[in-house]
Amino acid sequence: MFDSVLVANRGEIACRVMRTAKAMGLRTIAVHSDADAGAAHVALADQAVRLGPAPAADSYLVIDRVLAAARQTGAQAIHPGYGFLSENAAFAAACADAGIAFVGPPAAAIRAMGGKSQAKALMAQAGVPLVPGYHGDDQDPDLLLRETGRIGFPVLIKASAGGGGKGMRVVAAPDQFTEALAGAKREAAGSFGDDRVLIEKYLARPRHVEIQIFADTLGNAVYLFERDCSLQRRHQKVVEEAPAPGLDPRLRARMGSAAVAAATAIGYVGAGTVEFLLAPDGAFYFMEMNTRLQVEHPVTELITGQDLVEWQLRVAAGEPLPCGQDDLAIDGHAVEVRLYAEDPEAGFLPATGRLDHLVFPAEGPHVRVDTGVRAGDAITIHYDPMIAKLIVWDRDRPAALRRLRAALAETQIVGLANNTGFLAAIAAHPAFAAADLDTRFLERHGGDLLAPAHPNTAADWALAGLAVLADRRRRAAAAARASAEPDSPWGLADGWRLNDEAAEVLMLADADGEVSLGVVHRRHGGYRLTAPDGTVCLGDAWFDPDEPTGLTAVLDGVRHRVAAVRHGTDWTLFGTGGPLRVTLIDSAQAAGREEGATGRLTAPMPGRIVDVLVAVDDVVGRGTPLVVLEAMKMEHTVRAPADGVVTAVPVTIGDQVEEGAELVVVRTGEGEPA
Questions:
Q1: Domains of the chain listed by start with CATH number
Q2: Angle at 610 between CA 596 and CA 140, to 5 degrees
Q3: Is there a catalytic annotation at residue 403?
Q4: Which one of 186, 377, 392, 478 is least enclosed by Cβ atoms within 10 Å?
């Protein structure tokens, strides 16, 4: 076993590898970009080396700089994590040439599976079933279109050199093919430096079931059962669980044996995942092999009791697999969800910003949290917007889902948009509970999962108002204590009046609009609150002096204990049955919102312009693609919201734009900007 490992990655996987390595007594080395100089993985490491500027192409993806960091620190091994250089055959070869152990498969195995077309040819030779499709080298667009006719619509265009949903398009009809092919090739080139694609039949209602395999340098290979990853959005996994619900043990064994055969055919070493599409009739088809550890590996760890990162490190050091196939068994059920900085209500656009408040459920035998961020850290445009992975385990699937719902309810994120509520809706959905799963689950149930929240009740408005009032009192008391007259009654902020009760109106807003909450400061303490519907509540609230967000509120005789988080003028209350979000507004803010409504088509997030599809004076229809913006490794197409004429295009290909930057102006038939 070597005595030191450099982790050539960032975020939660870098932290995960370092914790396991430290538990094994190894010295850990982090590498980082300028944006990550203060990141969690850097703080966790024994040593850290700067690679370069924030963009991954100038830091984490520069092989020579990573190897130089390993030589500088004397690292004997490099763990690539997932993403970045983890499936880069040139990097694996460079590590071998430098005499540094690469914690992953040999370069030849990565090359064999690096191109989807080549991989499928190898799998066909090994007897692994394939989805009907075209996997050839000829990339002539006319040929590709003819092949789609042979295969039959709908088809799936996939980047040959990559995964993760990038460079992937579903095409339902011939008239959609040209635009979809151009977008897939452009995205594939930007993500993988290779614009080649393959085309496959798009199967109706398949499940995505993958097999975790492991092989050592001594010829041993095992499978650690399967994971169901059917719940996907834009071909990226949202929820993963192990074992796959309802999988027959004989089918499990057949799929496991096929996965081991696939690994053996290419001389594989280390952790890998063989991904299959599973049809309702039990037929399964090879999709691809990921020659690295997967994001969802924790669910496999929880049902097998094995540490796959430790396995990786031991196998890379030349040791045999810790277990044989007969030593492995499934224990219980595990589910993982990915917490992302994204806005489900805005088409899941990735979000950037600072994590002003971040609380996860307590970890233990039933709950695990893998994260690479802390409260106060920023989610930037440069990297994947994952905040954390939340993983739960219990004896069976129903119990695990109860754990998942409880863990999501205890998760508190404030500062930027996130998908916690969306994940909670999935966890509570009857079809998910019934394991009615396939790769179009989220598409089919999107209306339920993104349904508008129930309107705030009178009690909700009163509770939010109490949080504002308690915070006002707390701030006034703090100011009084810091003043020359700490005992002055003017620092009480209790609305006291001589022979009268003070009254005021709090202007609050939620997603549905603004409301007025009447407040009367009662002479004997507390408040009388009149909700927008006329309901009158009596209440009082105070913050725990030892817990900045701990609010105790008594409302009509019922005591509530919640977390109340203030972010500027926004308030988020957790522990009310679901996050309660309101904004304290004033007339100046309202005027500012009116003034800011320009109506132009603007960038929904920071990014790079990769294509401009229109010019001034072009006539466009509702839905016409106008500009393609690349941000956080994905393309986002800005489309015309109405029929009109383009009057201005202030951006060009290659421009870096900030959120809110004007992209296109379309004048509608009424003469107004769209």
A1: 4-103 (3.40.50.20), 132-201 (3.30.1490.20), 207-449 (3.30.470.20), 458-590 (3.30.700.40), 598-668 (2.40.50.100)
A2: 145
A3: no
A4: 478
